[in-house]
Amino acid sequence: MDYTTLGRTGLKVSVAGLGCGGFSRLGLGTGKDEAHAIEIICAALDLGVNLFDTAAAYGTEPVLGKALAGTARDKVVICTKAPFGVSNPDSLPERAVASLDRSLKELQTDYIDVYQLHGIAPRAYDHAVNALAPALLRERDKGKFRWLGITETAPGDPEHQMTQRAVKDDAWGVVMVAFHMMHQNGRRLVFPLTQEHRVGTLLMFAVRNIFSKPDRLRATMRELADDGLVPRELADNPDPLGFLVHDGGASSLIDAAYRFVRHEPGVDVVLFGTGEPAHLKTNIASILKPPLPETDRVRLAELFGHLVGVGLDAPHLSPPSRRPA
Ligand SMILES: NC(=O)c1ccc[n+]([C@@H]2O[C@H](COP(=O)([O-])OP(=O)(O)OC[C@H]3O[C@@H](n4cnc5c(N)ncnc54)[C@H](OP(=O)(O)O)[C@@H]3O)[C@@H](O)[C@H]2O)c1
To answer: Which end of the chain, N or C, is more open, meaning fewer C-beta atoms within 10 Å of its C-beta?
Structure first.
């Protein structure tokens, strides 16, 4: 594993972080049981992952707490989040504090490393920074968590308006940002700012559905070509990003997707979500590989650098039995 420093928090974190939400929720989202989820977490620990991202909304705090119970607390970095409802501009700060206390119990820990407000829309940001953050920071001073973080609502804020404001406010030491091969505007809009203000970055949406479901990618290419946003030949090609897989290049599309985000200047931790032990291993291996060849990176920028908000699955796209991220 490679380790880095999470912005001004000074936390030493693995560059690959296990996402306990998304469509997989460690396998709980695809019908696997708690023992399986614990095995995924333990396998990640064995491979050197020390950062785990969960949330009140994911239902994976208890399983993460159980899996980490035997690990020295200072060897792991636990990130969790307040419920989505807290991002409502009318929500009471007391609700966020009550949820923080619940998370501490569910996670069986005395403190959380990064406590995040979850999916904050631009219109909810003033409330987040003026009402929620001060109340939560008083709890931090009691030792309940170390750093406050904030995550954007990627589908509802594809231009990162919220994050662009948050990085300039002292309250937040960490932001979570959506960025991937076909949604690259974080390079221009976010990462120069996070680097300037030394805000730690957790990267989400590296693969999601668009790169893990070939039909989804093909359908997206057709829509984009119909709108004149990508060359028609990509829509006609059954393997539109196949050019990335070659000797000296990526070994698969998913390998390309994780390597693409990992080496972006300004990205500290790549979150990956899975419920499959085999994916866990290959994804970490991909995140640890060198950058994609320059010719491929240039081509990705030329083909997709202008796209905004592609492949950011809105929560309603997931089956009702699953809790999305
Ligand atoms: N606003 C927010 O706060 C927010 C929003 C989104 C995400 N997040 C965080 O970011 C984390 C990562 O997001 P994500 O879960 O969407 O992760 P991701 O790594 O971008 O995508 C994971 C999806 O790809 C599949 N996959 C992963 N590796 C694969 C492989 N090698 N081959 C085939 N399919 C593969 C997974 O299914 P399998 O189970 O089959 O591997 C899963 O459906 C979340 O868990 C959460 O912690 C936060």
So the answer is: N
Q: What whole-number distance in Å separates Cα of residue 62 and Cα of residue 172?
A: 25
H/E stretch holding 150 reads strand 145-152
Long-range contacts of 66-72 (CB under 8 A, 24+ apart): 66/34, 66/38, 66/108, 67/37, 67/38, 67/41, 67/42, 68/41, 68/107, 68/108, 68/109, 69/108, 71/45
Distances (CA, A) of 133 to 93, 149, 150, 202, 204: 8, 10, 10, 19, 23
Beta-carbon contacts of 181 under 8 Å, excluding residues fewer than 6 positions away, are 211, 241, 256, 257, 260, 300, 304
CA of 23 to the centre of ligand 1 (A): 6
**Interval 61-95: pLDDT, tens:** 999 999 999 999 999 999 999 998 887 888 899 99
- Which pLDDT band, with edges at 50, 70 and 90, does 319 fall under? very low
d(CA 298, CA 320): 39
DSSP 8-state code for residue 195: H
Please choose, from the candidates 174, 202, 146, 205, the residue with its C-alpha nearest in 3D space to the C-alpha of residue 22: 205
Q: What is the pLDDT of residues 107-152, one digit of tens each?
A: 999 999 999 999 999 999 999 999 999 999 999 999 999 999 999 9
Pocket of ligand 1 (CB under 6 A): 19-24, 53, 118-119, 151, 153, 176, 204-208, 212, 254, 271-276, 279, 282-283, 325
Ligand 1 pocket test, candidate residues 271, 287, 317, most atoms within 8 A of CB: 271
Degrees (nearest 5) of the Cα angle 55, 61, 63?
145
pTM of the model: 0.96
